[in-house]
């Protein structure tokens, strides 16, 4: 088989890139290790920046998002029994975020791809990128025991943190930056009305909690947990009791609880690979960087990488611009490091890192300071809503 761009991974990065390229008439094949149902079963992100929303619209998959997604003009930070609203819209000159689940984003992109007839190979084994430092790269995979080769011009490694693309790069060609946090998030999805119409990020001496949602009748909640805990140790009752303890009393008292539909523990990590381009192979999204979810940036960063690579490829194929091909890493990394900083900072002011009460007081002072100053609230709002994309020109 032959194509222009071989895309490894059919998560949101791979599907969005594939869709945008396809609309420009740039041929691509997506190779995914898992089944479509598995990809759709992962409950992850919930908050889309305007840049991500616009890219969905540009990809002509924004209709359902615009109909069913919920625009959020603010969110709350809670600490010391208080709830301080960050008026994102007012502080950013009218910008907002959209609550629309990653599962829905993926579903819309999958449907568009199946309608357009773009080729996606699911359940591919032993996916391997080859010869990306030459001008004849390829990707091989096994399916039903048979080896297949896709010859291509470029490879996009959209295969997430545990994927094969980054791991195929010679170790002396890549530099990795990493911070692993000493806790995780226990997440619960439940068919209950959200406790508040906006998200609440809570600092508490027992640990962090987050109240989020997917719709008027679907809530998503998280509590910080230790890494050695197992999901089975958390009955629904234990989860709701712990969540209530970490919220201000008036919010806790209005929490509606119910059976959990999904419950999982995710570790928290900050990670960046530099560079993000290796000859004719580009790393996109979680394959190149991870943020702790506290800033709601992971999927949004994946989308801004896609934006950059899409425009570089568009100019490559439509205008013959070869000079931009080597600009990918530097353009992406400028924005990535700022999102890394914000996610790390949100994580550091909101989570319990130790039993040392000094740390708790410092976090409370920092939250009090930031939320009582217009400058402080503005910097939070500006980052939360998403920093601007760099134009590729
Ligand atoms: P994905 O989604 O991991 O998709 C990668 C795909 O590649 C496939 N794959 C392979 N395919 C072929 N060959 C191989 N060898 C392969 N290895 C892997 C995988 O099966 C998969 O289908 O990466 P992508 O597309 O870059 O997307 C990134 C996002 O999924 C991620 O950044 C977000 O989910 C992060 N995130 C959040 N981001 C936000 O912007 N806002 C949020 O509110 C938010 N909340 C979250 C989150 C992530 C969380 N977890 C569980 C890590 C909340 C949580 C709890
Ligand atoms: C979610 O709804 O899953 C969610 C929302 C905001 C975050 C992280 C996760 O910062």
Short characterization:
By secondary structure, the protein is α+β, with helices and mostly antiparallel strands. It contains 12 helices and 20 strands.
Topology, pairings included?
Layout: E1 5-8, H1 12-23, E2 28-31, H2 36-41, E3 47-48, H3 50-58, H4 63-68, E4 70-72, E5 75-79, E6 82-86, H5 88-91, E7 97-99, H6 102-116, E8 119-121, E9 125-130, E10 138-143, E11 146-151, E12 154-157, E13 175-190, E14 200-202, E15 209-215, E16 218-225, H7 236-245, H8 249-252, E17 260-274, E18 277-278, E19 281-283, E20 289-290, H9 298-319, H10 328-350, H11 357-372, H12 374-385
Parallel strand pairs: 1-2, 1-12, 2-8, 5-14, 12-19
Antiparallel strand pairs: 3-7, 4-7, 5-6, 9-10, 10-11, 13-16, 13-17, 14-15, 15-16, 17-20, 18-19
